[in-house]
Design a protein that fits this description.
- The chain has helices at about 15-25, 70-85, and strands at about 1-10, 30-35, 40, 45, 55-65, 85-95.
- The protein has a four-stranded antiparallel beta sheet with strand order 2-5-1-6, covered by helices on one side. It has a two-stranded antiparallel ribbon with strand order 3-4.
- With about 100 residues, it is an alpha+beta fold.
- The chain has two helices and six strands; from the N terminus they run E-H-E-E-E-E-H-E.
Length: about 100
């Protein structure tokens, strides 16, 4: 096991392309996007009652090595400052697997 950084971003779906592009420019090679998320934050509730998908919120989860985190944050922060959104970063442990075994 080794330490990696987990990056979680909540943002408008409209800005999703900019955020994904920023992550890739920063060196993040893989990520997961969950669209149409709902919840409540400091600015109030965000609910899934809109028929317009452009106004939905999205959740992006990505992992990267600690040595590229600073550059990723420097690229993502201006986008969130301009368009809104939240970003959380935490330390997590990754278990790397080397072989896929069909039966144990």
């Amino acid at each position: 096991m080794h330490v990696v950084k987990k990056i979680e971003i909540f943002s408008d779906s409209v800005e999703l392309g900019k955020i994904i592009s920023a992550l890739e420019r920063g060196g993040v090679s893989s990520y997961t996007v969950i669209r149409n998320v709902a919840g409540k934050g400091v600015r109030g509730g965000v609910f899934d009652d809109s028929a317009v998908t452009m106004l939905d919120n999205a959740y992006v989860i990505a992992f990267c090595s600690p040595d590229i985190l600073k550059s990723v944050v420097e690229i993502v922060r201006p986008i969130l400052n301009k368009f809104g959104g939240s970003c959380f970063i935490s330390d997590v442990m990754e278990i790397r697997t080397m072989k896929c075994v069909s039966s144990l």
